[in-house]
């Protein structure tokens, strides 16, 4: 009897061990199956090649991994790819979309040697992958004809490291202030705010029982340029520097708008999924959001009468954020030449024009931006203007750690559980502790 | 010595036995023993898998690092708090549910089915439904405010978020244990209740002095499985916080932390060390529990 119990105990123990350990080793299991599938893929491609010999050139399949945030985006993207395949009939593009946790999946695939030949890479995550040595430097592929100087400098610089180029920015997005014209009219406000003080004043007038004057998104990705607007630096020498008095002073108004003045709230406060949802359902009269909102508003809330202006000035200076994503090449790719052809086309003048004509993202090439006629469009203008002075959301290898610690602590200060100073001290301490390890 | 020598037929028998077992043995070696040993190996190494794969033997560095890793400590506190609340609650709830369903009410078969449905629902679907109900303007707050009770920001208030997950999980797992209790209840002989009746015991006394003691072995099982399951909380808090463990680390659990280190921070060695430590913690908790139970039996 005693013994039987012991054995049962052991049984439990092995269940426990297996459960926990399998979590940690999940990727190993996946590798095996992935390899197996890949083996099959190559097999089918080869048979296809034999069948399509009439092209004269051997057919090659290039895999491209990215994310798609809407069906419209998917449609435009497929159109761009189709244009590429028409120009290079011997190259097939196999598109595969990662729906969630893009970087975790991509990293795991890179570890297993199963990543696509070309993939999207956010500037924010780029330094980590460049350091790991899994990307293919692009300098040797670039021809004069490609005109690499045409890219906006801050955007392309996000992918430069150690004197080499590791990705080409596919497009960019910037932030601007969306305001609800009907709410403004109701409240008797004639023009959108020019300065931050004006904006707070308007937000107070606009706030009523059903809505807040200002919607606040609390990510560091959104607040970075605001945090630096009073002369502070959020990141110094690849370490968090949140306790800089100038940073705290710049962020304090954001927290006060919610807790002291009660004129602002986050989307989560009102049960909205994200800023667009909050603004679209008219629970915020003003919100700082990106150009991706334009298409969303058209689709989901066509009746909301809104306008867009540049983000109000802080200390007489304009600031906004710019986000960019590159096409980067896998260092382990077996068809780098064809992969480069794809990148060259997608980031070239022709490909970028097809893609950015969707209006979902702004071109990262000056020449394309000039050719697009939306520079005169009142809705797009603030975003284009913003690109000239925007802070690019990218820094160095530790930005992801700095970011997650900021979010964790800032959100608690934002909810009023601790003061902003306490939160920033804690965030800085934990982040830098984690960095040293 | 001669005792250990096997005859030809015995050898053949043994060979046959192992042959039949070989698929299972192979599977266990590859998918259970192998990964466990590999994880142990990883736990003592500084591992980099991305780019240049490297293993650097670092002795106990990964384990000593935990002491100064605040997020590991927070994760352990959250998990322990979660275990301490959820295990007793779901066990008691399961027992009460099972006892009511065994009392011979009308239509109790239907109730059994209805109670069991949460267990059949996939946890991802369950979390989605609860997250929707937990919204500030969602069903739960609407009900609370309509009866004049205070409302909460269930998902975004750090002091409430973990409790929201607890409620959801108790609701989802209690029926599973209820079924186990129900099976055990039906094994209790009616004669014991008859004897209690003759002695003039009330319904509550019968429950307390007959049912509960006789169910003790099953309770031991339910508690151990509950402890193991709750220590390994992952999917609910992952979905709740979008993988971050927020707000303010309030839904960060040990397994979620392991996931973050392994797949987001590319520190497989440290993640393995955390996994091994968690296994040890659960092992110790299980043994303590069994020891306590044994004492009671004596």
TrEMBL record, chain A:
**Which Gene Ontology terms cover its molecular function?**
maltose binding
**Keywords, comma-separated and alphabetical:** Signal, Transport
Asked if the keyword Transport belongs to this entry, the reply reads yes
Q: Which Gene3D superfamilies match?
A: Periplasmic binding protein-like II
Give the organism the record lists.
Salipaludibacillus keqinensis
Q: Where is this region: Disordered?
A: 26-57
Q: Name one GO biological process term.
A: maltose transport
Q: Which family does it belong to?
A: Belongs to the bacterial solute-binding protein 1 family.
Signal peptide range:
1-23
Gene Ontology CC: ATP-binding cassette (ABC) transporter complex, substrate-binding subunit-containing
Q: Where is the composition biased (Low complexity)?
A: 26-55
User: Which superkingdom is the protein from?
Assistant: Bacteria
Q: What is this protein called?
A: ABC transporter substrate-binding protein
**Signal in keyword set:** yes
**What Pfam family is a match, any one?**
SBP_bac_1
UniProtKB/TrEMBL annotation, chain B:
UniProt keywords (A-Z) are: Cell membrane, Membrane, Transmembrane, Transmembrane helix, Transport
The record's listing under PROSITE patterns reads: ABC_TM1 (PS50928)
Bilayer topology reads:
Multi-pass membrane protein
Q: Which residues form a coiled coil?
A: none
Q: Which domain of life is it from?
A: Bacteria
Q: Which Pfam families match?
A: BPD_transp_1 (PF00528)
Bilayer-crossing regions: 20-44, 80-101, 113-134, 160-184, 214-234, 268-288
Signal peptide range:
none
Which residues does the UniProt record annotate as the domain ABC transmembrane type-1?
76-289
Q: Which GO terms describe its biological process?
A: transmembrane transport
InterPro entries in the record:
ABC_transporter_permease, MetI-like, MetI-like_sf
Gene Ontology annotations for the cellular component aspect, listed alphabetically? plasma membrane
**Which family does the record claim for this protein?**
Belongs to the binding-protein-dependent transport system permease family.
Protein name, per record: Sugar ABC transporter permease
- Organism name: Salipaludibacillus keqinensis
